[in-house]
Specification:
The chain is an all-alpha fold. The chain contains 17 helices and no strands. The chain has one domain: Alpha Horseshoe (Serine Threonine Protein Phosphatase 5, Tetratricopeptide repeat). Helix 6 packs across helix 7 and helix 11 runs antiparallel to helix 12.
């Protein structure tokens, strides 16, 4: 019962990092440039948004602490440390942030990556402590270097936004790649955006497709939509393919992505689509 309440608290409090809001409608002009297409998606789910960058709170996982028990010294009791971690994370989700800080900080100093991540998150959010992005980035980096996926993702956000560290898109890409290779859908999506917009690196639609394909395989409907935009436009090593765009937008629309529904209706009204793709996507 306790674990259930913890999970319910997680889904309630984690909403801030997972909500994706639409703020732009699909343009009536369909053959958009990739740059404009990326811009059209930016307001919804991008790394480069004016409102600031969202950070990630992980799903609560007691077993993760068990996997870290190897960090304990022989004379220490893994069980007692483990219970402290549980109490600290319980306190976090109950918004008792001062208690969470006092319980998790000693564990973070002992090298527990999950505890380090929560300490970083609270400094990032200003929960239980005075908000300090520099200290947050320090703790994210400690956990990221030890392989904590969410810390790697958030450290990438820090470098992309320049919060707590000097802005460096190459370091952002490095840490997102680490997280993406470990399965972070958000990191995979962000890498696709970086290669599409070409901010700080050479634009590469092929690489964008690569990372968005991985995100889409895990149910990211916005990644499906973006790939459709790339295939509508073509260029940068990608041949224009309206049939493939239709297929991708159909999948995105089926997952409830409204902009894909609008785009799909517009695409199917185009004469070039009707002459080349009529019945093709339906057979796939």
């Amino acid at each position: 019962m306790q674990n259930k309440s913890i999970m319910e608290n997680y889904y309630q409090t984690c909403g801030f990092c997972l909500q994706r809001r639409i703020s732009m409608l699909v343009s009536v002009a369909f053959l958009l440039t990739i740059a404009f297409s990326a811009n059209a998606v930016l307001k919804e789910k991008s790394i480069y948004i004016n409102e600031g960058y969202t950070h990630k709170t992980p799903q609560f996982d007691y077993l993760h602490m068990d996997r870290e028990s190897g960090y304990f010294k022989v004379e220490e009791s893994p069980k007692s440390r483990y219970m402290l971690f549980r109490e600290g994370v319980d306190a976090y989700f109950q918004e008792a942030y001062t208690d969470a800080i006092s319980l998790l900080r000693p564990l973070a100093k002992h090298g527990y990556t999950s505890a380090q991540f929560y300490i970083a998150l609270m400094y990032d959010q200003g929960h239980g402590v005075i908000q300090n992005h520099s200290i947050a980035a320090k703790w994210y980096k400690k956990a990221a270097k030890l392989g904590h996926i969410d810390a790697q993702y958030n450290l990438g956000i820090a470098y992309a936004s320049g919060q707590g560290v000097k802005s460096d898109v190459h370091k952002a890409i490095y840490w997102w790649k680490q997280a993406a290779l470990s399965g972070s859908v958000d990191a995979q999506y962000n890498l696709g955006m970086v290669y599409t917009t070409g901010k700080g690196i050479k634009r590469d639609a092929t690489m964008a497709i690569k990372w968005w394909t991985q995100a889409a395989a895990k149910g990211d409907s916005a990644a499906l939509f973006n790939m459709g935009v790339v295939y509508v436009n073509g260029g940068q090593g990608i041949q224009q393919n309206l049939c493939e765009a239709s297929r991708l937008w159909t999948l995105s629309a089926e997952e409830g992505f409204n902009r894909a529904k609008t785009a799909l209706r517009m695409l199917k009204s185009m004469q070039s689509y009707q002459s080349s793709c009529w019945g093709v996507t339906a057979k796939k």
